[in-house]
Amino acid sequence: MGPGEISPGEAARLMKDEKPLGSRAPRFVKGSRALHLGWQVGVFLLGLVVVVIGVIMLPLPGPGWLVIFAGMAIWGTEFVWAQLVLRWTKRKVTEAAQRALDPRVRRRNIILTSIGLAICAVLLSVYVWQFGLVMPWTISD
Prior knowledge:
The chain is mainly α. The protein has helices at residues 8-17, 27-30, 33-57, 64-76, 80-100, 103-131.
């Protein structure tokens, strides 16, 4: 088994810990078809608003991805497709976290970060050598 892969026993444990798929609406809501349909429409619209806000936040300052996943979690309370997407995402994040703990991957990431910091230091040194500590913009009082 390679790094980042989970064992069959671990996969079985993860699947056993997962909640069953389906609606998590209260029992009295599920009892009435019209009420359940209205509940689903409300959950969908609320999730849609949250996801759209998250998409708007992607290019703007703010936790865009976090808000998008919150909207997906809202949808996941009612819709099987959203629950499956969230399970897939959780599995991929878990695999990535396991891969990140691999000593070879950590060593590679440390080396790449060090190279990036060295390049930034060289560029900053060249800027200071060429222009001094004068900023390229003027701020008037």
